[in-house]
Amino acid sequence: MFENLEPQIPHNVVITLLEGTEDAPTPGAVLAESTLISGVSSEYFVAEDVSWDDLPETWYFFCRVHANMNGIGTVVAAEG
Ligand SMILES: [Cu+2]
């Protein structure tokens, strides 16, 4: 789920391969990119052509509008 708490500010999420190191990550090839979503909003972003199973164990993500908004994501199995 994608949650944007900033009124009037558009953000999105771009998921890419993780390059560099975990201390100095850099984005690789783009795997999926959401539309721009203006806050305040919380919506599900569904990539039609990418499933969780398609992602590597860890990946890089950032906001197309604000490249300094970035981090590393991990797929975790649902419990139960
Ligand atoms: Cu942003």
Spatially, the strands of the biggest sheet line up as 4-3-7-8
Shape: globular
Largest sheet: 4 strands, antiparallel
The amount of helix comes to under 10%
**Number of structurally distinct domains:** 1
Q: Name the helix and strand elements from N-terminus to C-terminus, one letter apiece.
A: EEEEEEEE
Percent of residues in beta strands?
A: over 45%
The tally of helices reads 0
The average pLDDT score comes to 89
N→C terminal distance: 20 Å
Q: Helices and strands: which structural class?
A: mainly beta
* Radius of gyration (Å): 13 Å
Number of strands: 8
Low-confidence stretches: none
The hetero molecules present are: copper (II) ion
Task: Put the structure in a nutshell.
The chain is built from no helices and 8 strands.
What does this protein look like?
By secondary structure, this protein is mainly β. It has one domain. Helix content is 0%, strand content 45%. A hairpin with a 4-residue loop joins strand 3 and strand 4. It is globular, with a radius of gyration of 13 Å. The two termini are 20 Å apart. The model has no long low-confidence stretch (mean pLDDT 89). Bound molecules: copper (II) ion. Residues 11, 63, 65-66, 69 line the site of copper (II) ion (CU).
Characteristic key phrases:
80 residues, mainly beta, 4-stranded antiparallel β-sheet, two-stranded antiparallel sheet, globular, binds copper (II) ion
